Amino acid sequence: MKDYSLAELEAYLDEALPAEQMSALEALLRAHPEMMKELSAINGRRDAGVHSLGEIWRRARLSCPTRQQWGAYLLGISTDEELDYYSFHLDTVGCRYCAANLLDLQSLQAEQRETVQTRRRKYFQSSVGHLHATRK
After folding, report:
1. Do residues 25 and 8 make contact, with C-beta atoms less than 8 angstroms apart?
2. 65-70 — which CB contacts under 8 Å span 24+ positions?
3. Are 72 and 78 in contact (CB under 8 A)?
4. For site-directed labelling of 63, which of 38, 92, 99, 132 has its Cα 20 to 30 A away?
């Protein structure tokens, strides 16, 4: 009954799997005590300071685009190669951290757009009385 890999268990601990896969692994963990023992062993190894290069890479999220790169993506100033990678990272890898970061930036962008529109409307309304129509 091994429907999972150790890499998946490590990703589960880091909450780095897509939500559906996290749910499936959680159901397996509840149903199979031997799987919980493997998870405990991984945690023990981590607590003891034994790390592989892959673990360090995953934990530091070295493959994740930065917030500035996601901002450039939203502004439409990313290169085609970057766009391909971002798409791969979100759609294929399913990085939940980057998806959340992107969603946050999109909401900030929408808020800023609304703020600018509100400010322009207020400027216009406050200056309407100072504008004189020129008549011939």
Report:
1. yes
2. 65/89, 65/98, 67/101, 67/105, 70/98, 70/101, 70/102, 70/105
3. yes
4. 38
